[in-house]
Amino acid sequence: MSPSVTASPAAASPVAVDAALARAAAGERLDAADAETLLGGTGERFERLLEIAGEVRDAGLAASGRTGVITYSRKVFVPLTTLCRDRCHYCVFVDTPGQLLKKHKPAYMSPEQVLAVVRQGKAMGCKEVLLTLGDRPEDRWPEARAWLDDHGFASTIEYVAHIARLVTAETGLLAHANPGVMSAEELRMLRPTAPSMGMMLETTSRRLFEEPGQVHFGSPDKDPAVRLEVIDAAGHERVPFTTGILVGIGETARDRADSLVAIREAHERHRVDGQGHVQEVIVQNFRAKPRTAMQGAPDAELLEYVAAVAVARLVMGPRMRIQVPPNLSDATEFGLLVRAGADDWGGVSPLTADHVNPERPWPHLADLARMTAELGFELRERLTAQPEFVLGAGTWIDPALRPAVAALADAETGLAASAPIPAAPQSFSADPAPGDPHKSTAEQERGVPGDAAPGAGAGDGVRTVRRLAEAAAADPLALDDGEWIALLEATGDDLDVLAATADDVRRYTVGEAVTLVVNRNLTSTGLRAAASDDPAAFTLDDVGAIAADAWDLGATELCVQGLLPASEDPSGYLDIARAVKAGAPGIHLHAYRPQDVRDLADRSGLTLDAALVAMREAGVDTVPGTGVKVLSERVRGLVAPTDLEIDRWVEGITAAHRAGLRSTSVIFYGHAETAAERVAHLRQLRAIQDASTSSATGGGFSEFVPIPLPGPAGGVPLVSGRAALDEHRAMVAVSRLLLSGSIPHIQIPWTRVGREASVTLLQSGGDDLGGTLLDGRVKPEAGIEHGLELPVTDASAMVARLFRPFRLRTTTYGAALGLPKSQVGPR
Hints:
Layout: H1 14-25, H2 32-39, H3 43-63, E1 69-81, H4 97-103, H5 111-123, E2 128-133, H6 142-151, H7 156-171, E3 174-178, H8 184-190, E4 196-198, H9 207-210, H10 224-236, E5 241-247, H11 253-269, E6 278-285, H12 302-316, E7 321-323, H13 334-339, E8 344-348, H14 365-374, E9 378-382, H15 387-391, H16 393-396, H17 402-408, H18 441-446, H19 460-474, H20 481-488, H21 492-509, E10 514-517, E11 519-523, H22 540-552, E12 557-561, H23 572-583, E13 588-591, H24 594-604, H25 608-618, H26 633-639, H27 646-658, E14 662-669, H28 675-694, E15 700-708, H29 724-739, E16 745-746, H30 750-753, H31 755-761, E17 768-771, H32 792-800, E18 806-808
Helix pairs in contact: 1-2, 1-3, 2-11, 3-12, 5-7, 5-19, 5-21, 10-11, 11-12, 19-21, 20-28, 21-29, 22-23, 24-25, 24-27, 27-28
């Protein structure tokens, strides 16, 4: 039986909706019948629902001293284990033990792996560490039980407590524990380690749990009664608790109403001085995911979802925080969600993927702040515990955690402090005192896992590289140039260790997905005022036809670069952009290297900034960061003297970022450069990125592409006799480690290394395959890489060998909608 699709709520009678709206406007307490009625409002009554919900939210923010403020938490998402005993029909988070083996992935993240990611997050200003995992995997999988036994833990939740304690002791950051169903005793064990916890109720529908074929059938932890008991127990233990509903998984409107009322009742049963324990209610929209039983189900219908947000606000009242995940909605929908009474975006990470919804990247924080401001609100950072609970720490925060919470909080508002994150508080220990009832005897005797030197027991060479690689994984700025050179020159077992460490950093930051953009190239050098017999030449009329053809084939991006011939007017750069947008208004135009922009500026008598403004106005969306080999004047003089001078290239790309344009970044290696010059190149890219992202303009590097010199040998090797593939593995791995926390994506240049080698490099820290490079049917030879195509079906097959998810992306790594219209090979 296929999982059922949510039926649209029947339109309630206008009289009933009007009566329920009147009660809501008067501030009366709504029951489940009222909530169900309001969920069915349409037209003007739907608009009135949003209006009242917004007014209630605004009143609550004013009463809390945060008028006009929408909050978020800057977090690190740690997928502690992806093993689970449940079988939810919409989930892509979980793995089986067999899948873990195929992915070379551990059953549980080690303390060292967790701390490596958390320390990077701390460097980026994160204050929350979200610990997410499957429910009680040891009850289903012997492999999980064996891992816990080997490491001295009685249960997965005991390991969660240990990791949460370790995170705060070592970094000062605060854990938000999200381990699923917990008993009262487990809540008590976790309370001294995490200032907040969470578990989605999702729905009170017993049909979805009990009926074969429904989304929660066969998942013991999704019993609504059990989940409500957890929410109640959290209130009894005075745990600031996050819960919510999932909209669109087969539940009815009455189920949604009952679920919201059940959360409110649990919240109110455990009030202390008028404050209940539910700190925020998430209203989350279902998004179908591939390779799940519900992959064919439609996403939650937008207006139904927005109505659920508004009704949640009215049921829960003005002082509750209503959270909507920003990555699960398109930016164009944010206005509706805010009108519906939302006042919190939840956790957003500048470092790690949403491992539960990997196909939906987080918005950039600068973009989220800008979009929030455009809606009339100020974006402010909070801690994992909402401000009311921080200010009421004497009641709601365990004494062991209060110094750590206070160190990150603004004492006046309870929001996150704007000061730099301090070192871990001296008073907080990684381990409780001996005999602590919340710690197992084995854990007390063992001490903190990972205290032994990294690589203990391995050969000397492997141990040295492992130590360097693990240090780089935790803090890319901790290594000196000589240490990075040692990693670049690794061979044999050392190189295997380096590649595996880089791949772990990839896995636990950007996630498992391998991405691809459907695109076409156009080399602007071929522009001519008049038609020509040259197959690589084209006119402006051709440009519009090329763009329209690419769009018709399913391309979402057209990449244009190359100097215009001196015989052509420099306005041709802008004319091409306008022609592209005229031919395909929806296509993303990725156009013009710093050298091209400089040519436009110099020949048109424009300043660099004015040229960039003109480009944006003409339709350019992002820019390629190509046109440079290595950021070294010595190397440029030897191998590419006609390239733009290095300082002028840096000036150009920095100006593009300052103008709000994102770009790619590259290195062309294997020329005459030294290992030290490669390291200097990567460091300079980090410095440019730091300056660009701190400016809050929205510009910066989206990805880095390590491109080898063409040829059978792949260029001049750094290590004499080292195979070309190993040269590439070392370069990709070091790129991932040195740029981690700065430039998120490492793209594998399949056109240079070939498809087979690309699969290997995706296991060395890579996460992206670039573009399909469709030739198209109009002037196919006008692209710089004519004759090289990677159809989506071929790319998907390559990734399937790695047992990793494959997804199409936009140029800026958002989720691409649908599949391209053409998935055929080269034509």
